[in-house]
Specification:
With about 475 residues, this protein is α/β, with parallel strands linked by helices. It has helices spanning about 10-15, 20-30, 35-45, 60-75, 85-105, 105-110, 165-170, 195-200, 200-205, 220-230, 235-245, 260-265, 315-325, 345-355, 375-390, 400-405, 425-430, 435-445, 445-455; strands at about 50-55, 80-85, 115, 120, 130-135, 150-155, 180-185, 210, 275-280, 290-295, 305-310, 335-340, 360, 410-415, 420. An eight-stranded mixed β-sheet has the order 3-4-5-2-6-7-1-8, with helices on both faces. It has a five-stranded mixed β-sheet with strand order 11-10-9-12-13. The chain has a two-stranded antiparallel ribbon with strand order 14-15. It is elongated, with a radius of gyration of 26 Å.
Length: about 475
């Protein structure tokens, strides 16, 4: 920064230019965690490529915000570009965090910066010194490309999900001797550039690597860790990724890979307003199980699951009826697909009596593809996997739903060798809770299962059996 000799900013820069940890402690008034100090010091020491993989909630966005503000206030000229795979993650999470810390700066420093929707600029020279937020997309990979200055900082948040094309396009921006790249993320994919940085020796040798386990982080509550352990098991990919900060096992026997689920959360998808809507209803059988209602319209789950617990069948009917009555006519489902194993049959019968388009689904019955799957449950789960694998769908960011989807395992029935999906009882034998939200979503594919084999005419009715070799009534 070009400043008069008596300008106190010169003393400020001299004190903090090489010490971001001191900047955070004295200027922002907070004490960083040890791993945050390690990351900030790595930047100050001149490491040009730094990658952090961690469990959930350890403070990555907070630390990145501190580094960006330190960079813009102690270097000139400088250009900082931050990117993520989705606009909500970028602007509602990370960039909102940066703006929060701008407000926490002492007034004399905050007045030097102007926070806009997609940029934070140095008021004295907004084209030469700024922080810019840009969404990463495979079809427009230039988010980190064409960034040149004496001081360049590139930050990739949720780096596992950033398309490979973006990393390729960013190569030129990293060519400057003072350019630094920081990748941060939960290790949700067992492939891709972020995975390779930690696992391929020829890449890892060029990177300063940091691994943060939630068990070692004071910011993460023990209740969160214990809940993930109880719901999904210590041997699950959910626990590995969300708690341990480890990459999912490539040979894991879960049906739906976590990377497909995470991608469906941030993807932008639309569908025609006239696309039929179906509801899936998984009815609690006993104890700690929950009843869950999920809505699906084509390739979109438009809202979070509705979940309740400890109610009898008629109270459950009342909740579903109230949901129906509160729904506008153009958003009413053409079918309500109810799991009728156990108490669900009574709920289904009563919903029909009330005139709602309820159809019972017995997931233990034969599938349409009898030579491949052991039962309808397996067929529906693998249809759901195909739905995610086409990468054209979107689901809400609902922690319970996404984690349950990534928990169900598959196996092979003996002696037929047909594929089967893990049952709720089998999950309970592993010490895990019932995947009620995930099962409710999977039920939404029951109509598709029927159509796949026999088709359906345009005048088919919900209160008649599906035309197939299934016990669906």
């Amino acid at each position: 920064m070009s400043q008069p000799a008596d300008n106190p900013l010169i003393e400020f820069v001299d004190r903090y230019r090489s010490n971001p940890v001191l900047f955070v402690q004295e200027v922002l008034g907070v004490e960083p965690d040890e791993w945050q100090k390690q990351l900030m010091q790595a930047v100050a020491d001149g490491h040009r490529r730094i990658a952090v993989r961690s469990g959930h909630g350890v403070g990555k966005s907070t630390c990145a915000s501190w580094i960006m503000l330190w960079h813009i206030l102690t270097r000139f000229p400088q250009k900082t570009v931050v990117t993520s795979q989705s606009a909500p993650q970028l602007f509602d999470a990370l960039f909102a965090e940066v703006k929060k810390w701008v407000k926490n700066l002492p007034p004399v420093l905050a007045e030097l910066l102007e926070a806009k929707a997609e940029r934070i600029e140095l008021l004295g020279s907004p084209t030469e010194s700024f922080i810019s937020a840009r969404t990463s997309r495979a079809e427009s990979p230039e988010a980190l490309a064409g960034v040149h200055s004496e001081n360049v900082m590139l930050i990739g948040d949720e780096a596992s999900g950033i398309p490979e094309q973006v990393y390729e396009a960013a190569y030129g921006s990293m060519s400057g001797m003072t350019a630094v790249t920081i990748l941060l993320g939960n290790p949700i994919r067992s492939s891709g550039f972020f995975h390779d940085v930690f696992n391929r020796p020829e890449l890892a040798s060029d990177w300063f690597l940091i691994h943060v386990n939630c068990n070692d982080c004071s910011r993460v509550s023990k209740e969160f860790i214990n809940d993930i352990k109880a719901r999904y098991g210590e041997d699950s990919n959910v626990y590995r990724v969300r708690v341990l900060g480890e990459f999912p096992r490539a040979d894991d026997d879960t049906i739906i890979p976590m990377e497909l689920i995470e991608a469906a959360i941030v993807r932008e998808v639309t569908c025609s307003p006239t696309t039929p809507i179906v509801w899936g209803l998984d009815v609690a059988r006993f104890g700690s199980d929950s009843s869950c209602l999920v809505k699906r319209q084509g390739n979109i789950v438009p809202e979070p699951p509705r979940v309740w617990q400890g109610l009898d069948t008629m109270q459950t009917v009342g909740i579903v009826r109230a949901e129906w009555d509160a729904t506008s006519e153009d958003r009413l489902p053409v079918e309500i697909l109810v799991d009728v194993i156990g108490v669900g049959s009574g709920v289904c019968d009563r919903l029909r009596e009330l005139g709602l388009p309820a159809r019972g689904i017995n997931v233990s019955e034969l599938p349409s593809m009898t030579g491949v799957y052991a039962n309808l449950r397996a067929e529906l789960w693998f249809q759901a996997k195909e739905w995610f694998a086409r990468r054209e769908c979107k689901i809400p960011d609902h922690p319970r739903l996404k984690n349950e989807l990534a928990t169900i395992r598959y196996g092979f029935q003996k002696p037929s060798n047909k594929m089967k999906a893990e049952s709720k009882d089998e999950m309970k034998s592993r010490g895990l809770r019932s995947p009620d939200c995930a099962d409710a979503l999977v039920l939404c594919f029951a109509s598709d299962a029927g159509i796949a084999l026999h088709g359906r005419s345009s005048n088919s009715q919900w209160n008649k059996p599906v035309s197939r070799n299934l016990g669906i009534f």
